[in-house]
Design brief:
Chain lengths: ~260, ~300, ~100
């Protein structure tokens, strides 16, 4: 092992002794000075997670969150110097983290927060123009086979838990009151999308969730809408499309070339 | 309100980017201040960004930086290249850096005499290097690769450190002087780092300054530190960037300016970020000192 | 119901959506009573040069969550959440035992 390797191993594992070969001018204990680096590394990475997962932190409290995040940092330090995207894998870690097992919804809340981070930094793309929409509408006969294109800042997450309500309650001034009204075991699907400079999170009704999932999987407009109706008689295609347009989620509508 | 006669307010839509930063004070660009900066367009020499924060595909960071860049000079400061690391440089990271520099055309690019990555892991700290021949050769090789790939001269920042290595065969100033001489890079003199390291290792700060290659100093950093103590009770200063610049560091800054002349100076703040006017006031203090103490450089008079 | 939607019905849906999306936001919210939409706090830059002062134990603290001395101590907002179906009841966390190195 070279000097970097020995140093690096001791940074993350407090059970590993201070690396050999460190010195201090006054003969003070190098281990205590080395602890400054240990602290910087771990605290800096835990801070990065706290910034990306604020609702996860509020749910479990700062003390618990930081202890849990520290375990994650040690188990899965960043593989890239770009910390903006650090934390992918945190939700899976929480799933396997037994002290948090009492909160079965916690991994999906963390998943939702990571999708928000990814949407925040995703590539820019202009939403579909009114002209393009009007053109698609004018070629109405080709709409059943039309395929929707979506902006890169769109993400979808289906959960057996009320993740959107849990998340939304924490954006309120009165989180405690709102949380009391959340039935955590209600399945919810979240739509995460950046529109201009803001990332919004929407709760999708079951039919809307099926419809969007179908479109994202490459189904045509007609096929996705039919499947959504089949699964949810309440499916409202107009309201769903309005939501997607308002969210800035749709980048374009590709209609098949008309056969003559 | 303009303090400096040479500053007539922020530059608006300057078509051709200048080749170097204005010899004035700047501050670090923080997302907390994006809107306030564009609303007030404060009179400031430049902004500095941490390169890695903008290595994302799109979104608000690029939106704001693009707009702020239209009005101000820009310094890009890398914190993740691991120039002091034993492993070869991360070429993918260099590619990201090249793309960022290409996009924003900054007047300055700088990195650290430190390492932060090993075995594919990123440790998110500026970790210390031993000052020996092997490290010297490696650091020079890495800087050469950076300057070749980025097609520009880089500035290397002196580190704030908490430990020394028994294996070191050179002192820090000797090591840095060799690196600068061999690689042709410039020096980013972080006066706070210098003060922190000198305190932490029982060195004389003014003596260290004298022994650095001062003619290559192209930028200065100023920041605040936190005070802890080592196991013998001696002060152990932490480069926290969480407080205003300390008075000792301001005094050392004046001492440096007497020797290097008017030099672009950054007020760094990364912790407990205050409101924009607080940082602008610190920058104004640096500007006032720059104007009062530092003689014009010969090249500046000509221009 | 017919499993295959007609082109006309899809066109009506898209046309209606366009007029809803073109309406002012307040009106949109009225038209979509079921909608739940929320924004979060802004993200910060995560790469910086700061060193963590005043927390010098955090990097060296050892966490032991293998032990059997768990007690149920919810400390966050999860205390306000509840589940009728979960045998443990949501809102419960295991306590960490921390040892300073």
């Amino acid at each position: 092992m070279n000097a970097n390797a020995i140093f690096a191993e001791a940074l993350l594992d407090p059970a590993v002794p201070c690396p050999p070969g460190l010195a201090s001018w006054n003969g003070s204990d190098p281990a205590q000075r080395f602890a400054v680096y240990r602290n910087n590394v771990v605290v800096g990475l835990v801070d990065a997670l706290a910034d990306s997962f604020p609702v996860t932190q509020e749910l479990v409290g700062e003390t618990f969150f930081r202890a849990m995040a520290r375990e994650f940092v040690r188990a899965a330090p960043p593989r890239s110097p770009v910390l903006a995207l650090y934390g992918q894998g945190f939700a899976e870690f929480i799933e396997s983290f037994s002290p948090a097992a009492g909160l079965p919804y916690l991994p999906d809340v963390a998943r939702l927060e990571m999708l928000r981070v990814l949407a925040w930094h995703a590539a820019d793309a202009a939403p579909v123009s009114r002209q393009a929409l009007a053109a698609a509408l004018a070629a109405a006969e080709s709409l059943p086979l039309a395929r929707f294109e979506f902006v890169p800042a769109l993400r979808l997450l289906a959960s057996p838990y009320a993740i959107v309500s849990l998340w939304a309650a924490h954006q309120s001034e009165n989180a405690a009151l709102e949380l009391a009204g959340v039935a955590t075991d209600t399945p919810q699907t979240a739509l995460v999308c950046r529109h201009e400079l803001e990332v919004a999170i929407y709760r999708l009704a079951p039919g809307a969730a099926d419809f969007l999932a179908g479109l994202l999987a490459g189904q045509s407009f007609g096929a996705a809408a039919s499947a959504a109706f089949a699964g949810d008689p309440e499916f409202d295609p107009a309201a769903t499309l309005a939501l997607l347009l308002g969210a800035g989620a749709i980048a374009g509508i590709a209609t098949p070339r008309r056969m003559s | 309100m303009s303090i400096l006669p040479l500053a007539a307010g922020p530059r608006r839509s300057d078509p051709a980017p200048a080749r170097s930063l204005p010899r004035r004070a700047g501050i670090g660009l923080k997302p907390e201040h994006f809107r306030a900066i564009l609303q007030t367009l404060p009179d400031l020499g430049f902004f500095e960004i941490h390169a890695e924060n903008y290595m994302v595909e799109g979104g608000p960071f690029h939106h704001w930086l693009t707009r702020i860049r239209e009005h101000y000079a820009l310094s890009v400061h890398g914190v993740g290249l691991s120039i002091g690391g034993a492993a070869p440089l991360d070429e993918a990271h260099l590619d990201r850096l090249a793309a960022l520099l290409d996009r924003y055309q900054p007047e300055s690019f700088s990195e650290h005499l430190a390492w932060s990555s090993h075995g594919g892991n990123f440790y998110n700290d500026l970790l210390p290097v031993a000052y020996d021949r092997v490290t010297l050769a490696r650091v020079c090789e890495h800087i050469d690769r950076v300057q070749t790939r980025l097609r520009r001269r880089m500035l290397l920042e002196n580190p704030a450190t908490y430990v020394e290595f028994a294996a070191s065969t050179m002192d820090e100033t000797g090591f840095i002087s060799e690196v600068v001489a061999r690689s042709g890079c410039g020096l980013l003199l972080d006066v706070n780092n210098l003060y922190v390291s000198c305190t932490n290792h029982g060195r004389d700060a003014r003596d260290s300054i004298r022994r650095l290659p001062l003619d290559t100093v192209a930028q200065i950093h100023l920041a605040g530190f936190a005070v802890e103590s080592d196991s013998l009770g001696a002060p152990l200063l932490i480069d926290s960037h969480g407080t205003p610049v300390a008075e000792e560091v301001w005094r050392l800054y004046c001492h440096v300016l007497d020797r290097v002349g008017r030099t672009p100076t950054l007020i760094e703040r990364d912790n407990d970020i205050p409101a924009l006017p607080v940082l602008l006031a610190e920058a104004a203090r640096a500007d006032e000192i720059l104007c009062r103490l530092a003689p014009m450089r010969r090249d500046e008079v000509r221009a | 119901m017919n499993q295959t939607l007609t082109a006309a019905s899809l066109a009506i849906a898209l046309g209606t959506a366009m007029s809803i999306a073109a309406a002012p936001v307040v009106a949109q919210d009225k038209m979509m009573a079921d909608k739940e939409k929320c924004y979060g706090v802004a993200l910060k830059g995560k790469n910086d040069c700061k060193a963590g002062a005043g927390t010098s134990c955090a990097g060296t603290a050892k966490t032991d969550h293998q032990g059997n001395a768990w007690s149920m101590v919810p400390k966050g907002s999860c205390e306000k959440t509840a589940s009728k179906t979960s045998p443990t009841g949501h809102g419960q966390l295991m306590e960490f035992k921390e040892k300073k190195a």
